[in-house]
Specification:
Blueprint lengths: L9 H11 L18 E6 L9 H7 L5 E5 H7 L12 E2 L11 H19 L15 H22 L1
Antiparallel strand pairs: 1-2, 1-3
Length: 159
């Protein structure tokens, strides 16, 4: 049985997403005005626990599936977890709001998140949800390479 864990480059992924969304940003509200104090976390919109195969795990660790949330909203999304179990807190005061990814890319990521959230939640048994070639060994290797490569690539695109 495949048991998903955080990837080896998770620290880099979180830092990259935080920079892509411009630091002081919670995707569930206006961060400063609604009293979302303290830390920002990076959240998997489609949970890793939904992945039954390694290729799905690599796919779900893409930038489209990661969103910054303040602690308040992150805990609401993880009702089954205690606050001290949630990893990856960033003090929002340490990061500038510069270097945001375009609104068009964020909109496309949101559409993709919505589509795959529904798809993974409607899964029947061991049904494979990605294109069939992603489950082949070569497809799985490509997804793993992409998962390990995107944090650096996204930051290069911003410069």
């Amino acid at each position: 049985m495949w048991v998903p864990e955080y990837p080896k480059n998770w620290q880099e992924m979180r830092a990259t997403m935080f920079k892509l969304y411009g630091g002081k940003y919670c995707t569930k509200g206006i961060f400063m005005k609604l009293g979302h104090d303290g830390f920002v976390n990076v959240h998997h919109a489609v949970p890793l626990s939904k992945s039954l195969y390694q290729s799905e795990y690599y796919f779900l660790n893409g930038p489209w599936n990661l969103v910054p949330l303040c602690e308040k909203h992150h805990i609401k999304n993880h009702k089954h977890m205690r606050q001290d179990e949630i990893k990856g807190k960033y003090d929002y005061k340490l990061y500038s709001k510069s270097g945001k990814v375009s609104w068009a890319r964020r909109f496309c990521w949101q559409l993709k998140r919505t589509w795959y959230y529904r798809k993974f939640n409607k899964r029947k048994g061991n049904e494979k949800l990605l294109w069939f070639w992603n489950y082949w060994e070569s497809g799985e290797r490509n997804l793993e390479k992409e998962m390990n490569r995107w944090p650096g690539k996204c930051l290069e695109d911003l410069l």
